[in-house]
Structures are given as C-alpha cells and as structure tokens.
Amino acid sequence: MSTETQERIAPSHMLNELAGWIARFSRNEGVTDTLFPPLTLIRNTEPTTPIHTVYEPSICIVAQGSKLVLLNGEAYRYHPSQYFAVSVDLPISGQVTEASADRPYLAIRLRIDPEQILELIREMGQVRQRPVERGLYVSSAQPGMLDACLRLMHLLDTPEDLPVLAPMAAREILYRSLQGEQGNVLRQMAPGAGRAASIADVIRRIRETYNEPLRIDELAEEAGMSSSSLHRYFRDVTAMSPLQFQKNIRLQEARRMLLNEPVQAAEAAFRVGYESPSHFNREYARLFGRPPLADIRQLKSASQG
Fold this sequence. Notes:
Blueprint: H1 3-25, E1 30-33, E2 39-44, E3 51-55, E4 58-64, E5 66-71, E6 74-78, E7 82-86, E8 90-98, E9 105-111, H2 114-124, E10 136-140, H3 143-154, H4 162-179, H5 184-187, H6 195-208, H7 216-223, H8 227-238, H9 242-260, H10 265-271, H11 277-288, H12 292-304
Antiparallel strand pairs: 1-2, 2-9, 3-8, 4-7, 4-9, 5-6, 5-8, 7-10
Helix pairs in contact: 1-3, 2-4, 3-4, 6-7, 9-10
C-alpha cells in the first residue's frame, strides 16, 4: 500500500477510534465534562432542535454525525473529519442534524486561551498585524490533529498523567489549528495582533456589562478606534452590530434565568437590562420563536420527556 493511500485512509480509522473513545467516556446525552477541564465530550443519539448558546473560544472536532451552526443567519455545517473553531465569544444557534441510537453524534470540544495562541505564534515567528476576519470557521482535521486528539483521549484512562501530559496534547491540537488552512482566524485574536484582538476585548466588555446601557463611544475609545471603525470591525468578526450582540446576550441570559430560577418574565427582563417587558417579550419571541412563557414551558416539557 502506497504512502499516499495510507494518508488518505488513515483519518477514517482514526475517526472510528476517536468515536469509540468519546462513546466510552460520554454515556449520557449532551455534554460531559472530563477530568481535564478544557476538554468536554458531546454525545447526541438523535437530531436536536436548535440550541442557542454563547460559544467561548474553542475547537470542536467531530468524530461521528453532523451539526449545523447558525451565526446571525450564516450557516456553518461540519461533519466527521472536520472541526469547528471559534476564536471569540459568539452567540450561536447549534443543531445536531445527523445522529441515531446506533450512530450517535460524537465530538470533542477543547477550550482555547488567546494567551496560549500568542505564546505559540511567538514560537512560530508569526506575530504580526492581521486583517480582520469572521471569528469562526469550519476546516478539515488532518491526521496530525486527530493523532493529538487520540492521545488526549487516551489520557482519560490514566488520570494521574493528565496534569502533565494533557496540556501538551491540547497545545498540539491548537498548534495544528494555527497551522491549518484558516489558522489566521485564530492568530488574529492573539493579544496585540491587531484590530480583531481589540474587538475581542470589546466583546468581553459587553459580555461582562450586558445589562448596562451600551456606550459605543467609550468602547471605541478603549479599543483605540473611531465609533464607525468599531462598528465595521465588530461586524466583520461577529456578523452583527454591537447592539445586536448585546441584545442576543441579554436574551440568552434571560432565558437561562427563566429556565433555572424562580423568576417571572418581567423580572428577568429588568435584570438583563430591558426597561419595557413588552419590548422584551417581542424580542424574545423573535429570537427563540415563542414568547417567554410558552418557550420555557416547551423547554421544560422536552427535558422531562
């Protein structure tokens, strides 16, 4: 068998092995935490309805099944041998589209740290100003990345080795991503790498103060750019304006409150920064498809069923 043929078929063998490890350590539906905190496992035995959440910077590698992600109407689909990378906090709707009891959707998600990106690109000699690009992408997982994923999963069998060896495998996965065909999307978020890194700081500020009035002039001054530049670069990275971003964060936080805390819709609206409950109800229904009461009732019914 030629080297070229081996390289072509190796990923499928590696994916099968990776799927087996994920299935072994994620017996429950949904997300499973591991003893290595940056690593979580995902398992779904049937297609899901769209789930709205805020993705933190991470790399999600699919071993089996497929998923559809929407960012303000933009669609990103990924399948086995592909990975989905997010370089900044983004409000996203994710939906598993291919899964069954016999062949569940299986994936790993590895949280990434912008400071580690900076450390790696310094070692790679690639620290420079970069153009602003969308803060997420789908790409192919090459054998080197899959091999590092497998070594990381193997370590779950020897927890005593995790503190030393797991960070090394995780670092290699990030390195492989930076070396990939769309690695610039991650490189642009390294502290000091340019406008996109400044936008990442603005995103963190909005998330921390989501229930306060949005002061664009102050955010622009902190980012070292004009208000118009802030709007332009923010949309380049997130596919939405700062106000749309804040609104999405507010509504997702309100939904979390209504689902998990004994609060009424009006109280949740005020707590996340809305002054008008009726305005909150309209925007909530626009994002989630139902007004708050009906939406929470349906979510609780689905979780109990």
